[in-house]
Structure prediction request, 109 residues.
Amino acid sequence: MKEPIVRGLSVTPGYRMGVCRVINDVNEVSDVQPGDIVVLPNSDPMYALATMSASAIICEEGGRLSHICIVSMEMGIPCITQARDARKYLKSGQLIYLDASEGEVYLNE
Prediction:
C-alpha cells in the first residue's frame, strides 16, 4: 500500500474520498463545495461554516477538544487534527482518500 501523504490525530473515525479544498483564510470559506474534504490551518470557530457542507475535515492544529473537532464529532464528520503541514502537501482540486480512523490521508491516483 502507498505511504500516506499526511498523518495526524484521529478525532472522528470514518473514511472519505473526495476533492480536497485547502482553506488558508476565513475569506475562502465560501469556496467550499458540498462533499469537499476541507483542509484548515487551525480550529478557529470562524471556520465552522466551512465544515457544514464538508464530507471530512483535516486540521493542521488543535486538539481533540478544539472547536472544529467538537463540531465534527457532533455532526459525525470524519476528522483528523494535528496534521502538520497538510496545506503544504495537499492542494485544492486533488482527489484524496481520508482514513480518519487511522489519521492518514492518501492521494487517490
